[in-house]
Write a structure and sequence with these properties.
Elements (H helix, E strand, L loop, with lengths): L1 E5 L3 H12 L3 E5 L5 H4 L8 E3 L3 H5 L4 E4 L5 H14 L5 E4 L17 E6 L8 E6 L5 H13 L3 E4 L9 H17 L5 H9 L2 H7 L2 H8 L4 H8 L1 H5 L10 H15 L4 H19 L4
Helix pairs in contact: 9-10
The structure holds nicotinamide-adenine-dinucleotide.
Organism: Amycolatopsis acidiphila
Pathway: Lipid metabolism; butanoate metabolism
InterPro entries: 3-OHacyl-CoA_DH, 3-OHacyl-CoA_DH_NAD-bd, 3HC_DH_C, 6-PGluconate_DH-like_C_sf, 6PGD_dom2, NAD(P)-bd_dom_sf
């Protein structure tokens, strides 16, 4: 297939790797001045920098958009894509939180969300979220496309900002920041709590199956009646999001991890996450 990648930042480059590794021709469009340099790590027979947006999408079968998380940008871009991409091309957005219904044009039956978790060349989930204007055929083709790449698409039934994965992530992150701000733990200590408990648990069972097992032979029913109320009555923290308070958390995170380069940390993350997925059977 011919795939246009629009936006070659963290997510666009990771999608590019996945698409190229599956033998597709990838054209990448991004105004960044160092685009040719960052694409040098890929096989030039498969991946090339497009001269502009029109060049990237001219004969694309699929467009995967990964530009700025900005409503006006996505509105303008998708209006152009509907006009310039071939009529059969699927128009997918990686948006983390903005539903397609907020930016798809009136004739946007091919526009929908294909939201990955970072990095999409490692983590299998893709949230497929149609708007009310998206056709059933586009949803079916998006699911087939992501499955053909060894991903695990999950089609969601309603559009909500942040979809499912990021709403869960945001809830946990709010509490994590609040616990650090209250001085309960440092960022590295909080990470150690998660990596040694919720992380491996959730790599194998989700929150509901985990809770069903947490109730012992009595299952989720027993858990909700037994410790359910003491858990649901816990008041969760409200982090201080002022610039000064945020700066203090950023500095604490940089102090914990700033002695290692991005490349070093990302390589260790990819290697260990792929090892986990190879055991849980999710690696494809
Ligand atoms: N980082 C994540 O963890 C993550 C995960 C899933 C989804 N997303 C979503 O993916 C999208 C990209 O996020 P990111 O983290 O890769 O951001 P990023 O800042 O790393 O990259 C964005 C890229 O878009 C480029 N860009 C700016 N204007 C453009 C234009 N007119 N045409 C083409 N490219 C343009 C920038 O030069 C930059 O390279 C966002 O919508 C984000 O919500 C991010």
């Amino acid at each position: 297939m011919k795939i246009a990648v629009i936006g070659a930042g963290t997510i666009g480059l990771s999608w590019t790797k996945l698409f190229a590794d599956h033998g597709h021709d990838v054209r990448v469009s991004d105004p960044r001045a160092d685009l040719a340099d960052v694409l040098r790590e890929f096989d030039p027979a498969r991946v090339r920098a497009a001269a502009d947006l029109a060049d990237a999408v001219r004969d694309a079968d699929v467009v995967q958009e990964n530009g700025p998380e900005n409503l006006e940008f996505k509105k303008d871009l998708f209006a152009t894509l509907v006009e310039q991409a071939p009529r059969h091309a699927l128009l997918l957005s990686s948006s983390s939180a903005i539903p397609a219904g907020a930016f798809a044009p009136a004739d946007g039956e091919r526009v929908l969300i294909g939201h990955p978790f970072n990095p999409p060349h490692v983590l299998p989930l893709v949230e497929v979220v149609p708007s009310e204007r998206t056709s059933e055929d586009s949803v079916r083709r998006a699911v087939e496309f992501y499955r053909s790449l060894g991903r695990t698409p999950v089609v969601e039934h309603k559009e909500v900002p942040g979809f499912v994965g990021n709403r869960l992530q945001a809830a946990l992150q709010r509490e994590a920041v609040s616990l650090v701000q209250q001085g309960v733990v440092s960022p590295a200590e909080l990470d150690a709590v998660v990596v040694n408990s919720l992380g491996p648990r959730w790599a194998t069972v989700g929150p509901f199956l985990g809770a069903h097992l947490g109730g012992g032979p009595g299952g989720y029913r027993h858990l909700t009646s037994h410790i359910g109320s003491s858990m649901s009555n816990l008041s969760v923290g409200k982090p201080d999001t002022s610039p000064e308070a945020t700066e203090r958390v950023v500095e604490a995170v940089e102090q914990a991890y700033g002695d290692k380069s991005y490349e070093e940390l990302a390589e260790a993350r990819d290697r260990t996450q792929l090892a986990i997925l190879s055991v849980t059977g999710e690696e494809k």
